[in-house]
Amino acid sequence: MLKYLAGVASALLLVAAGVFLFRSSATAEAPALVPRATAPQAGTPSEPLADEPLPEAAALTREQRRFNRYDKDRDAAIAREEYLQSRRKAYAKLDANGDGRLSFDEWAAKTVAKFTTADRDRSGSLTAAEFATTAVKRSPARARRCPPQQAPNEAD
């Protein structure tokens, strides 16, 4: 009984530590925006300020990022071997016995494991509640990019 109480106490301490760490990192200050200087400061020479735009990182399109994932040697061209490399890795993972041939059982191993895990009562068929556990877990929607902040009107 003492072992169970010690286990529960340690689990509660771990959860409390996790909450404490999560809250401390979530309250980190956001970087302050650098204000643009519109007029020379007192005591400085009155030279016109260069209103240079800040450099921005080039935004790659989804297709450009996909192309870059395949182009391993970065020669701006995807060779046949580069294109097939990801498929070879996926095939090797499925070929459990390493004989270079996929049997139906090797190909369907993930699906069979998913079915076996969902079939809690080991009846060989899934009830509606058991089947609901096989649904694909979707990731939350990505955060939307905000439009760029407009500079304040210098006439004001």
Automatic annotation (TrEMBL):
InterPro entries: EF-hand-dom_pair, EF_Hand_1_Ca_BS, EF_hand_dom
GO molecular function, one term: calcium ion binding
Cell membrane found in the keyword field: no
Chain residue ranges for the region called Disordered: 36-56, 134-156
One Pfam family it belongs to: EF-hand_5
Residue intervals of the EF-hand domain: 82-117
Signal sequence coordinates: 1-28
Coiled coil (UniProt feature): none
Keywords: Signal
PROSITE patterns assigned: EF_HAND_1, EF_HAND_2
Signal recorded as keyword: yes
Name used for this protein in its record: EF hand
Species of origin: Sphingomonas guangdongensis
